[in-house]
Amino acid sequence: MRALLIEDETKTLQSLRQGLEEHGWTVNTASDGLIGLRLALQSNYDVIVSDITMPGMSGLELCSKLRNEGIFTPILLLTALSNTDDKVTGLDAGADDYLAKPFEFKELLARIKALARRPTASLRTENILRFDNLEQDLDAKTVHRAGQEIMLTPREFALLEFFLRNPGKVLSKTEIAEKVWDVDFDTGTNVIEVYVNYLRNKMDKGFEQKLIHTHFGQGYVLKI
């Protein structure tokens, strides 16, 4: 397995590289965002681990540029910022997971193993998902409802896909976290609620029929 590690703190970079290599990973490293971007564009990796605050280019900018280039390698952001708004910002930029500093190495290892196992978009068997008057094109990355285009962030797009693949099923916050974010659910965060509300507001705006419903204490369901 190949990992790209981008971190400007030398001791942290060396420590993480040694730990990953001891667990069988092949690791390339970069000490700033610009070098990290160049390496990510030049080679294929199973996972990218990047700090957020770095010289040259931040981890958030790195995520956005890679996604705009069509590179969907799973990205784990390391951050000293741990409130919900900071996490939402990182996920909106295209990151797949986040880990707040300080952290234990075994947790980092578990997170990147989970990300590396995640199926890629190329494994999807359906290109267009539909429910009622809602249509999601997985190739064109577009969403329309009754012919009206709905603009979604990458994370909202992934969340909608999960709902469309499970119509009529009540999805718990734990399921959503595991399937859409590939992380263990943290009961201390309301990221799931925030994103469901974002998605619901965009999808249902201007329509009398609401599609995403809350089952209090259980989760959310896509239904008419």
Structural class: alpha/beta
End-to-end C-alpha gap: 44 Å
* Secondary-structure element pattern, one letter each: EHEHEHEHEHEEEEHHHEE
Number of folding domains? 2
Task: Give the overall shape.
Answer: elongated
CATH fold label of the largest domain: Rossmann fold
- Percent range for β-strand residues: 15-25%
Q: How large, in whole angstroms, is the Cα Rg?
A: 18 Å
Helical percent range?
25-40%
Question: What is the CATH first-level class name of the largest domain?
Answer: Alpha Beta
Name of the CATH superfamily of the largest domain: Response regulator
Q: How many distinct beta strands?
A: 11
Major sheet: order of its strands? Answer: 2-1-3-4-5
Mean pLDDT over the residues = 85
Largest sheet: 5 strands, parallel
> Helix count, per DSSP?
8
Tell me which CATH architecture of the largest domain applies here.
3-Layer(aba) Sandwich
Poorly predicted regions are 120-126
List keywords for this structure.
alpha/beta; about 220 residues; Arc Repressor Mutant, subunit A; Rossmann fold; 4-stranded antiparallel sheet; elongated; 5-stranded parallel sheet; 8 helices
What layout of secondary structure does this protein have?
Blueprint: E1 2-6, H1 10-22, E2 26-30, H2 33-42, E3 47-51, H3 59-68, E4 75-79, H4 84-92, E5 97-100, H5 105-117, E6 128-131, E7 134-137, E8 142-145, E9 148-149, H6 154-164, H7 173-181, H8 191-204, E10 212-215, E11 219-222
Parallel strand pairs: 1-2, 1-3, 3-4, 4-5
Antiparallel strand pairs: 6-7, 7-8, 8-9, 10-11
Helix pairs in contact: 2-3, 6-8
